[in-house]
């Protein structure tokens, strides 16, 4: 059997399935990023202002999550929460995993707000909720937008690990096509191209945002 | 609240403040009468700014007591033990004290007007409409009525400082702390800011504590000058006396160096 190195027929056949998978990939990234942004912010604020009895366990948990592979966390959580759909488990794990990174981005953003801003808030006797909500966070979050964008791209590129818990995102769709047709090259090549097609323009956008905020 | 006119607006009793091994204030006693305008002078590191920061609770005293209108502020004696006063009670006293900073410290994410109405609404509980009316009157007073919707970063240093003064006054403080408020300004912008402060001194009875290197201003506005050195008051007099015939050697040296 003499097969061509590249078959446009296979490419055309797999593309719709990959685009279906891409929808799941994007969905997982968006949901994961929403969870990571909110949870990361909470972690950063609590670690900054909380008591040691709260910050110590949170600090340990953050270290633990950051020091273990995302792939292992996917499989582990999926075994633990069999009653939930794998996609939901996957999104939450992505969100929690990246929340530990996002919390550092927020921390840096909060630290970058000048000390004088806190002092002015004290001098005006502002309550803590207003100091955070009206003064510090609006300035800190502005500093974190590029970091948020970079982590969104990085999360997007890690979604193929969802393969391990049988979520049919783009990479899994390619694997399935390959296994069914004994043809991988077109599917995997197109997966790579589709990833590039989404991440590269996004990274350009993030860079523009960085320059505008700088 | 002031019991009567003889209750000092501010009183320090044996206040100690250390930064690491460096003792900045070593058992400082002094008081400021209601409506007094007191200028603190002295070489850098002599503890002047620390006094203002203690009064704004930006620093915590390591010993001694501070009273505002006779009320214990950050610590009080329970028996013969010195205990910290909880934040809720400190906050009620702090509300009577306002501060203007060397670096203005306006909130860059808010407009000029929003900077001024933030605390009156969220601390004093004023209605938004009332807070805006009052803020506009204050902006008028500092000569920046037309800048109400600008971002602070669009203003000159002198304009920013005048907004910061309006923001502090919007809290209707009994005591105003001025921490080198012209030191970060270009020379040509200093006069406007001092003009605004002179006007406030003439038209209100706010107690003022001023740290400044503008000796002419200190002379015009204050009725008392305290010369600090090494965390202690080395000389205390009315401005005429201290600037024309200082009696202490350190004061003479200091004034010679800066005038």
Spatial separation of the terminal alpha carbons of chain B = 40 Å
The termini of chain A sit apart by: 59 Å
Helical percent range of chain B? 25-40%
Oligomeric description of these chains? heterodimer
Q: How would you characterize this protein structure?
A:
The complex is a heterodimer of chains A (214) and B (259). Chain A has 214 residues and is an all-alpha fold. Chain A has a single domain, classed as MetI-like fold, CATH 1.10.3720. Helix content of chain B is 36%, strand content 26%. Chain B is built from nine helices and twelve strands. Chain B is globular, with a radius of gyration of 18 Å. Chains A and B meet through α5 and α6 of A and β8 and α3 of B.
List the helices and strands and how they pair.
The complex is a heterodimer of chains A (214) and B (259).
Chain A: H1 8-49, H2 52-67, H3 70-80, H4 86-111, H5 115-123, H6 128-158, H7 170-181, H8 185-213
Helix pairs in contact in A: 1-2, 1-4, 1-6, 1-7, 1-8, 2-4, 3-4, 4-6, 6-8, 7-8
Chain B: E1 10-19, E2 22-32, E3 37-41, H1 48-55, E4 63-68, E5 71-72, E6 75-78, E7 81-84, H2 87-94, E8 97-100, H3 112-122, H4 128-141, H5 157-169, E9 175-179, H6 187-203, E10 207-211, H7 215-221, E11 224-229, E12 232-237, H8 239-244, H9 249-258
Parallel strand pairs in B: 3-10, 3-11, 8-9, 9-10
Antiparallel strand pairs in B: 1-2, 1-4, 4-5, 6-7, 11-12
Helix pairs in contact in B: 3-4, 3-5, 4-5, 5-6
């Amino acid at each position: 059997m003499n097969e061509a190195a590249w078959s446009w027929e296979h490419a055309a056949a797999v593309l719709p399935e990959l685009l279906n998978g891409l929808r799941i990939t994007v969905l997982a990234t968006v949901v994961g990023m929403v969870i990571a942004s909110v949870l990361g912010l909470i972690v950063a604020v609590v670690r900054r202002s909380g008591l040691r009895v709260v910050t110590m366990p949170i600090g340990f948990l953050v270290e633990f999550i950051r020091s273990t592979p995302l792939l292992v966390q996917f499989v582990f959580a999926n075994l633990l929460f069999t009653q939930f759909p794998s996609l939901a488990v996957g999104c939450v794990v992505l969100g929690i995993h990246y929340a530990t990174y996002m919390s550092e981005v927020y921390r840096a953003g909060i630290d970058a707000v000048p000390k004088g801003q806190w002092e002015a808030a004290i001098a005006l006797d502002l309550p803590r909720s207003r100091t955070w909500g009206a003064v510090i966070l609006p300035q800190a979050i502005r500093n974190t937008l590029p970091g948020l964008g970079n982590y969104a791209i990085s999360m997007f590129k890690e979604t193929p690990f969802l393969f391990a818990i049988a979520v049919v995102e783009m990479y899994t769709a390619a694997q399935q096509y390959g296994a069914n047709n004994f043809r991988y090259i077109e599917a995997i090549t197109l997966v790579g191209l589709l990833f590039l097609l989404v991440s590269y323009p996004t990274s350009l956008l993030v860079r523009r945002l960085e320059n505008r905020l700088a | 609240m002031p019991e009567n006119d003889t209750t000092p607006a501010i009183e320090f009793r044996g206040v100690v403040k250390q930064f690491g091994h460096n003792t900045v204030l070593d058992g400082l006693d002094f008081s400021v009468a209601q409506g007094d305008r007191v200028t603190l002078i002295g070489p850098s590191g002599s503890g002047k700014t620390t006094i203002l920061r203690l009064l704004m609770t930006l620093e915590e005293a390591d010993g001694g007591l501070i009273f505002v209108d006779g009320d214990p502020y950050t610590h009080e004696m329970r028996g013969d033990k010195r205990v910290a006063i909880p934040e809720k009670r400190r906050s009620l006293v702090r509300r009577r004290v306002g501060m203007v900073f060397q670096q203005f410290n306006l909130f860059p994410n808010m407009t000029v007007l929003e900077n001024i109405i933030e605390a009156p609404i969220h601390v004093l509980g004023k209605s938004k409409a009332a807070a805006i009316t009052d803020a506009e009157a204050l902006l008028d007073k500092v000569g920046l009525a037309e800048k109400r919707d600008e971002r602070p970063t669009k203003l000159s240093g002198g304009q920013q400082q005048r907004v910061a003064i309006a923001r502090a006054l919007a809290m209707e403080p009994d005591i105003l702390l001025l921490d080198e408020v012209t030191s970060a300004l270009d020379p040509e912008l200093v006069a406007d800011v001092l003009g605004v402060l002179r006007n406030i001194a003439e038209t209100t009875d706010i107690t003022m504590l001023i740290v400044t290197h503008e000796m002419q201003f200190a002379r015009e506005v204050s009725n008392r000058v305290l010369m600090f050195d090494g965390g202690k008051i080395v000389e205390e007099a009315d401005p005429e006396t201290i600037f024309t015939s200082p009696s202490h050697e350190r004061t003479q040296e200091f004034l010679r160096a800066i005038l």
